[in-house]
Amino acid sequence: MIEVISESFRLAEVFTISRGSRSEAKVLSVRITREGVSGRGECVPYARYGESMDSVAQQIADLPADITRGALQEALAPGAARNAVDCALWDLEAKAAGVPAWELAGLVAPKPVISAYTLSLGTPQAMEDSARKHAHRPLLKIKLGTPDDMPRLEAVRRGAPEATIIVDANEGWTAEIYSDLAPHMVRLGVALVEQPLPAGEDEALRGLARPLPVCADESCHDTGTLPALAGKYDVVNIKLDKTGGLTEALRVKAAAQAQGFDLMMGCMVGTSLAMAPAILAAQGMPTIDLDGPLLLAEDRAFPLKFDQDGLHPSEAALWG
Q: What integer pLDDT is reported at residue 268 of this predicted model?
């Protein structure tokens, strides 16, 4: 049996990017039960990719109840629906076998990872205040992608002078804006910038001098999208809601490494249930952004642990 549940989790504060603002995380959770054992997964439908809560729920509802992970890869395209079901099947298989999911996947035991903490887009003063509040965190991610980004970036650096910074432009720039801002971002200690150009216009990055590494986010989904990124991007951001689950995420990770890309693990704004499988894929990556639960005012039972050592792998009671 496959159950699909629509849920909403309040955010700790309004979260803003260049495309708009939100005050809650809307997610779909999937529970698959077979022979008295249940596995769970979670996804975040994303309008940018033509998804809605209803359309994704319908894709899941149309699947046969006995779907396998192998058959799932053919039944659904990469995206949120396949992610929730794939992760639920991993959880189900692990619980039925009585072994952790990382062992089923042939991985080494996962360790805590350092995750970025994302600062919402706001006025320079608001972003400086937020940066100061979170200056103790080793890695801050800031949302930009507007005509007035430099004052915001400088404000964040004032607020958090020691933190490493990554910038997410959310497709809000042009090649000319990137070229103009890159030297300033390097001066301010920015480590990389995510998706500066719209995915459909990123050919302008090919051959462009990139003093600051550029990471593909909206341009990178599954293994099939990797070849077109060569010469345009230095890093790829792997998200389970883009790859369609942990199964494909592990393939993308291996293929991207083989093709010479650096790696980043990212997430949508979801709960600890969504981050738990991502931690397995994130092992060994130099840049990790799995802070979704930190942005929430409420989370799942048995939430992931965040402390000075980073984000810890999940307990079996949550996932895997």
A: 95
Residue found by looking up tokens 């810890």 in the block: 312
Residue 228 to residues 193, 205, 224, 235, 301, Cα–Cα distance (Å) = 19, 12, 9, 13, 41
Element (H, E) at 165: strand 164-168
d(CA 120, CA 70): 38
Half-sphere exposure of 86 (CA within 13 A, CB side): 31
Task: Give dist(CA 44, CA 56) in Å, integer.
Answer: 9
Return the pLDDT at 145: 83
Q: What is the DSSP letter of 229?
A: G
Distances (CA, A) of 271 to 11, 26, 158: 10, 10, 31
Q: Residue 80 is encoded by which pair of tokens?
A: 């949120």
Q: How many CB atoms lie within 10 A of CB 131?
A: 24
**Positions marked active-site:** 143, 239
Instruction: Dig out the tokens for 31 from the structure.
Output: 């529970």
| pTM assigned to the model | 0.95
pLDDT tens-digit series, residues 258-289? 999 999 999 999 999 999 999 999 999 999 99
**What's the DSSP call for residue 301?**
S
CA dist 288 and 262 (Å) reads: 12
Query: What does the block give as tokens for 13?
Result: 């504060």
